[in-house]
Amino acid sequence: QVQLVESGGGLVQPGGSLRLSCAASGFPISFYTMTWYRQAPGKERELVTSISTSGGTTTYVDSVKGRFTISRDNAKNTLYLQMNSLAPEDTAVYYCKIYVYWGQGIQVTVSS
Fold it and tell me: Does residue 1 surpass a pLDDT of 90?
């Protein structure tokens, strides 16, 4: 059974940091490009960042460049998202996606 489980979300003050994890089970992630999406209240889900199978190529939406870092550990079957200098506009539910599989989503709230 394929499962993606996100963790690491929560409430953080502006300027703070969080690290999201997405643990996969039921299939090896090493064959797939992996992505993080987010959906803010009242907005469409948007692609935030992606990482190639080896981790050598990454892409970021302009609004998070220089603040967010995607990484992966194929041996641990886990995807990560390090988020620094968080701002209120980063508040959203964050989802990992691998191939056709989605995580359940995890809330990130940036507020003072």
Answer: no
Q: What pLDDT is stored for residue 46 in this prediction?
A: 98
Distance CA 99, CA 19 (A): 22
Neighbouring residues of 56: CB distance < 8 A, sequence distance ≥ 6: none
Task: Return the amino acid letter for 28.
Answer: P
Write the CB contacts of 14 (distance below 8 Å, at least 6 apart in sequence): 86, 87, 88, 110, 111, 112
pLDDT, average across residues 8-27: 96
Q: What is the pLDDT of residues 45-73, one digit of tens each?
A: 999 999 999 888 999 999 999 999 999 99
Cβ(61)–Cβ(54) below 8 Å: no
Evaluate whether 108 touches 95 at the Cβ level (below 8 Å).
no
Bridge partners of residue 38, in order along the sequence: 46, 94
Q: How far is CA 62 from the centre of its chain?
A: 15
Angle at 73 between CA 45 and CA 7, to 5 degrees: 50
